[in-house]
Design brief:
Number of helices: 10
Distance between the termini: 18 Å
Helix content: 25-40%
Structural class: alpha/beta
CATH class: Alpha Beta
Strand content: 15-25%
Strand order of the largest sheet: 3-4-5-8-9-10-11-14
Amino acid sequence: MSVRSGEAALAPLGRGGLRVGPLAFGGAPLGNLARPVADADWQGALAAAWDSGIRYFDTAPHYGLGLSEERFGIGLAGKPRDELIVSTKVGRLLEPNRAAATGFDDEGFAVPASTLRVRDYTRDGVLRSLESSLRRLQLERVDILLVHDPDDFYRAALDGAFPALEELRSQRVIRSYGAGMNQSAMLADFVRNTDLDVVLLAGRYTLFEQGALDDLLPLCEERGVSVVAGGVFNSGLLATRRPAADATYNYAPAAPDVLARANRIADVCKRHGVELPAAAVHFVLRHPVIATACLGARSAAEVRRNASLLDARVPEGLWDELEAEGLL
């Protein structure tokens, strides 16, 4: 079975009339995640994404202290705005770093620490964050705003950020709003207690782990909330035909038992003539509430490789055998 194609390739994204293809472009690598990205590479990545039919681009102030947003602003300039879906995030304001302006960022991005991330989930913080993001993105509007990683700020987000986003959506400043997190439990709470219509779930519903089936995904189906699946390769574990000995999982070296289980999944995939990364993408897109898989890339070659994963023919027998082996 192949991923949806043709007219069926477009799925509703939220309740504001947006429609999205099976792949979205994740902007964290363009913020120099882990290492610098050359100008030719990030420019080529955005151009290749557009040429591959990708129209949804997700970013955040957190990614490279605004660098990802700035690169989106340059690379997407001139694209037909009505064909483009852009989401960014709120919760981290960027303030001047007067104490260590000559240092480097300590949150995983290879950028100078000329600014600091200041957590702010208030209404004012949301509005200030949006204004700054629009300036970096060189846009008059974004389509979706997501509350970013409020793990330790649940009450602040619920009392401040979400009412502000509801206000922005009701005023038609944005089309949809939601939250983006690496956990499903708190996202499920937000689905219960707000009127959000999009969530970005990173790493918790993948070919390797499906914990979100216990809480978030059934709620989203019940409430008409669209899910953007991020981290579908579990930060590298499922990104190659067979997990390498030094593969990462949840952004840390994978434990031996994790590697062993991932290799068992790869063995089943091989028996069915499917490469592990292709199975990872096709798996998440099978779920009815998942509108798109958001894959990061830092070069045109990576974008084209990601897009090619959709072309794989995945037999139903693959999923049957994975389930029979206790791997799903």
